[in-house]
Amino acid sequence: MLSPTALVVASIPSPSISSFQLGPFTIHFYALCILAGIVVATLMTNHRLTKRGGEPWAVIDIALLAVPLAIIGARIFHVVTHWDFYFGEGKNIWAIFFVWEGGIAIFGSLIGGAIGAWLGCKWTGIRFWSFADALAPGLLLAQAIGRFGNWFNQELFGQPTDLPWGLQIDSTNPAFPAGLAPDTLFHPTFLYEVVWNGIGVLVLLWAGRKASMQWGRLFGLYLVWYSAGRIVWESIRIDPSEVFLGLRTNVWAAIAGVVVGLVILVVQKRRHTGLEPSPYRKGREWHPDGAVQSQDTDVFVDISAPPTSDTIAETATSTADTK
């Protein structure tokens, strides 16, 4: 165990507050971190999709469905995997709706968000896999930003450690394990995930640009990268969780994420050997305002004067170009 002097010098402190008052409202840093992540992911996705030829801010139309369903899916997944927290004698069943108190699961948000994104893509005409590939780096960065919410809440930390980067947790915190010394340090799993996700963003940006990973394969790589890291972080966390066959539910979810990601990579590589022709499905393409399309052009010939060989040749060429 580190001495009190070393504790001050070599450990990571936790914030003393997790919320503040703004008039009659209580603002939680946890929520602000999630909102900041959503904004960053939206901006990055819009930039990447627009570069591919998508309509600027079409991502907003998709997000209107994807974000609410992601939050709902995240809460449902958390409640299902922490059933004893909300159901049973003496439990407040209405607490399942208290999202502001924490308790959302990223794997649930991926499921709900994927359903919402698929519906939004049907609405806008954008290919689902094109959107998923555009989203992948921003989504991983958003998850890194969101993890700072756990830091503010002093939650979801790992096992005790003597490492120099151990995390300080208030001994009065309800999540502080009973029987441990007040100066015990813990693995900062939030920081591990922030670093892992940050590196992953760079990997995804490189893979998308240099390896030209399209048709959903970049999103498949995202699933493999993120889920592989979660297997490790979840294995050292000590917060309560349902356990099946000796593994926490989120470890099983992370294993499933790796498997699904690998399946996407293999299947999409076999199905699509070339590059995507457009981020839009055929017949739903978007064209910038003012752009002249071949089907909108007409050929005008001055019939007040007899045609010459030059006008006949020009008309023939123009007509051929419009076909």
Task: Tell me what the structure shows.
The protein is mostly helical and 323 residues long. Helix 6 runs antiparallel to helix 8 (189-210), helix 6 packs parallel to helix 9 and helix 9 (217-236) packs antiparallel against helix 10. The longest helix is centred in the N-terminal third of the chain and has 24 residues, at 58-81. The model is unreliable at 1-9, 291-305 and 308-323 (pLDDT under 50). Helix content is 56%, strand content 5%. The chain folds into two domains: 16-271, no CATH class; 292-323, no CATH class.
Features:
disordered C terminus, 56% helix, membrane, EC 2.5.1.145, mainly alpha, globular, 323 residues, two-stranded antiparallel sheet, 11 helices, transferase, two-stranded antiparallel ribbon, Lgt, lipoprotein
Write the layout of secondary structure elements.
Blueprint: H1 4-10, E1 19-22, E2 25-28, H2 29-51, H3 58-81, H4 83-86, H5 106-124, H6 128-146, H7 148-153, E3 167-168, E4 185-186, H8 189-210, H9 217-236, E5 243-244, E6 247-248, H10 249-271, H11 309-321
Antiparallel strand pairs: 1-2, 3-4, 5-6
The number of domains: 2
- How would you spell out the order of helices and strands? HEEHHHHHHEEHHEEHH
Count of DSSP H/I helices:
11
User: In which order are the strands of the major sheet placed?
Assistant: 1-2
Total DSSP E strands: 6
Q: How many angstroms separate the termini?
A: 79 Å
Briefly note the structural class of the backbone. Answer: mainly alpha
Mean pLDDT, as a whole number?
83
Query: What is the approximate shape?
Result: globular
Percent in helix = 55-70%
Give a quick account of the main beta sheet: strands, pairing sense, barrel closure.
2 strands, antiparallel
Oligomer: single chain
Strand content: under 5%
Low-confidence stretches: 1-9, 291-305, 308-323
Rg, nearest Å: 26 Å
